[in-house]
Amino acid sequence: MDFIKPLGRQNKTSIMEFVLLGFSVDPKIQTVLFVLGLLVYLLTLSGNLAIITLIWIDQCLQTPMYFLLGNLSFIEICYTSTTVPKMLWDFLLGDKTISFVGCKLQLYFFGTLGSTECVLLSAMAYDRYAAICHPLRYTILMSQKTCWGLLASSWAIGNVNSIVNTALVFSLDFCHSNEIDHFFCDIPPLLQLSCSDTLVSQLVTFTISGGIMIVAFSLILLSYILIVSSVLKISTAEGRMKAFSTCASHLTVVSIFYGTLMYMYIRPSSSHSMEQDRLVSVLYAIITPMLNPLIYSFRNKEVQGAVRRALSKDRW
Question: pTM of the predicted model, to two decimals?
Answer without folding.
Answer: 0.86
